[in-house]
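Lab notebook, bench 4. We co-purified these components, and the gel suggests they stay together. Before we commit to crystallization screens, I want a quick structural picture of the whole thing.
Request: model the full complex, all chains together.
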Amino acid sequence: MRSARILDKGIKSRTIRKRRREEKDTNRRLQTILFLVAAIVILTAVTVAGVMTEGYAAETDFSRRNLAPDLQHPFGTDWMGRDMLARTLAGLSLSIRIGVLTAAVSAAVALLLGTASVVFGRKADAVISWCIDLVMGIPHILLVMLISLACGRGFAGVVAGVSLSHWPSLARVIRGELIQLRQAPYILAAEKMGVSKLQNIRRHMLPHLLPQFLTGLILLFPHAILHESSVTFLGFGLSSEQPAIGVILSESMQYLTTGKWWLALFPGAALVIVVILFAMLGERVRRLLDPSSVHE
Amino acid sequence: MLEGHDLTFFYRGRKKTPVIDGLDLTISPGERVGLRGPSGRGKTTLCKLLAGYERPVRGKVLLDGRPVREYRGFCPVQMIWQHPETVVDPLLRMKQTMEEAGDIEERLLEKLHINKEWMDRYPSELSGGELQRFCLARALRAETKYLLCDEITAMLDLVTQAQIWEFILEEAERREIGMLIVSHSEALLKKVCTRIITLIE
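Here is the predicted assembly.
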């Protein structure tokens, strides 16, 4: 009688504990989704705001040169009297747009080459793997600079440089995943059950490949943005009339020594925040889509 | 008739040490052939060849006179794998995996003691023995003529082993299914097979 009651109590507390654990898990999932939405909203807002303030960012007014940050100009003004907040927003917006474009191109290249190396046999695989190793072996920044120079700098140069140098790591991931999937017993067995090739790709391959691809794609953004800014900073990227973060930072270098700290601090910090936001976004998406936690 | 003629197979880059070298094997309907041999002698590879998963380097596998790899749709030669957790997609619920094999008779599910509730679970929420029952159920569709069992009960306890083999034997006898049974257990082979062959070097 007593032992039965103890047993009953044990079961009850176990179910309560289980329920609590489930609640915590759903909370974590919900939190992650909320974070994703918030991050996307912030990044979109910055992009849109940058596009809208582009005109104002280029406005020069020599009556308000080199003002330190105050209420009217929270980020201060530069040596031509341009508002630094507007310039920073415009620069970030341009960076994000370039990042999205280059990441999309890189991901497309990676998907194509990764698939090709699995579909077209061992010779093609050897060639593509060699290319991956080659591009990965050259320091990114060097490659971006060279390609950007060869393509005539400017917007086209930067986009070409960044997108042609960032595909290898994602291509390697896709190739590895596909090789594993092609030999997976559950796909071979499904074939023997009479499931067609197309059905197999849709039912068994895409759900395994998509999370990897999506995560890789999002994690490309921070790299792309940082490389765009650095190559512009070094003078091999966007031209100096364009409101790019790299341009702002390299200009501010000349004024840093005269005590105009706000010229570099705010744009630099803003860039770092955007990059971190993208990196966290990718990391959260990865955790959300991870096969081992798919039914948490 | 499931025939393997002069089967030779080696894995890529191991031409000098073929896993299977010039093997002949015939399984007729209703016959249960036992296959034994030390580890690494190509028992699983032979199953894969006969079921059409791998192409032999030399020789051919014929099912009723036609190469087994030419059969489209559901293959009448079905293999049950040693590790059932590798042959079900980890991202799909069992229900979805079983749908691929078409309609499965209620009777089979009942005989194999498959719980209705398991259908809504993911493979990671089922044990090896439970998954193996699903694999058997989907491989025993009405079109199946030959069943290749690669150590299918090695991970089960004795009671379950006996249960499952009893069911398989009954089913095979009734439908005249030809079987190849791979096992390390001498006692099991003697009990269920009509003849036993040994793979040696």
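The interface with chain B takes residues 184-190, 192-195, 203-204, 207-208, 291, 294-295 of chain A (CB under 8 Å). Worth comparing against the SEC data before the next meeting. The CA atoms of residues 106 and 166 of chain A lie 6 Å apart.
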